[in-house]
Amino acid sequence: MKNYYKKSIAIIAGLLCTASSISQDFSEGVLVLNEGLFGSETASVSHFDETGTLQNDIFRTQNGGVDLGNTAQGMGFSDDFAYIVLNGTAAVKVIDRVSFELVATITDQMVNPRNIAVFNGKGYVTNWGDGAVADDDYVAVIDLATNTVIETIPVTEGPEEIIQQGGILFIAHQGGFGYGNTVSVIDTATNVVESIPVGDVPSALRIDESNLYVLCSGNPDFSGNETAGSLIKIDLTDFQNREEFAFPELEHPKFLGVDNTDVYYLLNADIYKMALTATALPTTPFIDTASQNLMVPYSFNKIDDQLYIGDAIDFVSDGKVFVYGEDGTFVSEYTVGSLPNGFYNYEEEALNTPNFDTLSISLYPNPASENFRLNTSENIKITMFDISGRLVKEMLYTSQAISVEGLKAGIYLVQLENKGTFSTQKLIVE
Q1: What is each CA distance from 83 to 116, 272, 362, 388, in whole angstroms?
Q2: What is the residue-level pLDDT of the chain in tens, covering all 430 positions?
Q3: Cβ-based burial of 98 (10 A; exposed 0-12, middle 13-18, buried ≥19)
Q4: Which residues are CB-neighbours of 400 under 8 A, at least 6 positions away?
Q5: Handedness of CA 29, 309, 318, 96 (dihedral sign)
Q6: Is the pTM above the cut of 0.85?
């Protein structure tokens, strides 16, 4: 009861704040996660709308000047919410995906958190633990209905990027302060962990319908054991069939993007493009970025029909974002927050997150005076809270009208649960 109460209070506060502020919608377009300077509250988020118009520091703007936190590391999405992992703050911020207003902050069992993936009502956050200890790394499992950590899954040192496909998690082990060479595979139904050997320093993961792509940057020259990078394509049906593309000696590729036909990566600040059916790495860049004076490539992604590169400049100044069309043409340059380390959009993340269509399940009539129904024939668990966060009704919807008799007129939050996936909607009782 306590956890439901806390979450309902947070959601109510967000709804009230939204009603009293200027309405803005950040649910479309591209979000840029700016890491900020480590040890300071300078993390931020920038937003490109569908016309390419940039707005910086949207979290601060939408939350009354409150800072996002220290060292933003990763972002994920689930239904109405965005989840930002803050490494320096040791927290996950839960944010309304539309208004970008703060809903909740999760700090329990977060020790050096890095990245997040979402599946079936749960969030999975990679944690380094104590960087000086090799065997305390784990994945924290969050119940997204209550925003609480319900368990942890021990994994190999240095878990970094995490993605999922159909309830199977894939985690790249860069190695923390060392150099890793494995990818963990976790079945979310059992939390059983298996390991796939890959190249040195797996730094980026992408998935299409049939394959997992792992970009390994190789050990750097200052490691004392420099190794070249590699690109590994692993068949998702059994994880056994794989193709490995080895880069020439001393080449260290970074970042990764995948669409329906091609793989993209960065090498020496240039963008390379390789067909999914190719049998060898390309030998010339797809986009030569020299004319844009790209200084320190810090992030990259392909979203819809555009390619985005984040530039750390000098690791202190405001960063830059360079945008290219998928035909290779330069589109524009923007100034964002310091250390832009990731590009995200909700639609892309949602493709790998099976859930029931929350847009098609709604309450009616709304407002309601005697009862309400759901426009679905499925059995849906319903939990209702009043404006103070008090639980007022809990039941299973089976196509029968739900009475609001005895409830005072006002605003109520109705949480819908279907097979472990949640959606919260507002109901007005007259």
Answers
A1: 8, 30, 24, 25
A2: 444 444 454 555 444 444 434 568 999 999 999 999 999 999 999 999 999 999 999 999 999 999 999 999 999 999 899 999 999 999 999 999 999 999 999 999 999 999 999 999 999 999 999 988 999 999 999 999 999 999 999 999 999 999 999 899 999 999 888 899 999 999 998 999 999 999 999 999 999 888 999 999 999 999 999 999 999 999 987 787 899 999 998 899 999 999 999 999 999 999 999 999 999 999 999 999 999 999 999 999 999 999 999 999 999 999 999 999 999 999 999 999 999 999 999 864 433 333 444 445 778 888 889 999 888 878 888 888 876 567 888 888 888 889 999 898 887 878 888 766 777 777 888 8
A3: middle
A4: none
A5: positive
A6: no
Q: How far apart are CA 387 and CA 413, in angstroms?
A: 8
* CA–CA separation, 246 and 228 (whole Å): 7
Dihedral angle sign, alpha carbons of residues 164, 166, 169, 174: negative
* Residue 207: both structure tokens together: 């998935």
Distance separating alpha carbons of residues 351 and 353, to the nearest angstrom: 6
Supply φ then ψ for residue 292, to 5 degrees: -95, 0
Question: Residue 348: what are its φ and ψ, rounded to 5°?
Answer: -65, -45
C-alpha angle with apex 125: 121 to 127, nearest 5 degrees? 160
Structure tokens belonging to residue 195: 């390991």
**Phi/psi at 349 (5° precision):** -65, -35
Residue holding tokens 């159909």? 166
Residue 274 one-letter amino acid: M
Residue 220: asked if its preceding bond is cis (omega within 30°), the reply is no
Structural domains of the chain, with CATH: 2-350 (2.130.10.10), 363-429 (2.60.40.3080)
E-assigned strand segments in 42-167: 44-48, 54-55, 72-78, 81-86, 91-96, 102-106, 113-119, 122-127, 138-143, 148-154, 159-165
CA neighbor of 146 nearest in space, from 385, 375, 320, 332: 385
Rounded Cα distance between 55 and 48, Å, is: 7
Q: Which long-range contacts (CB under 8 A, 24 or more apart) does 188-193 make?
A: 188/119, 188/120, 188/122, 188/124, 188/164, 191/141, 191/151, 191/153, 193/153, 193/154, 193/155
* Neighbour count for residue 125 (Cβ, 10 Å): 28
Cross-strand bridge partners of residue 96: 81
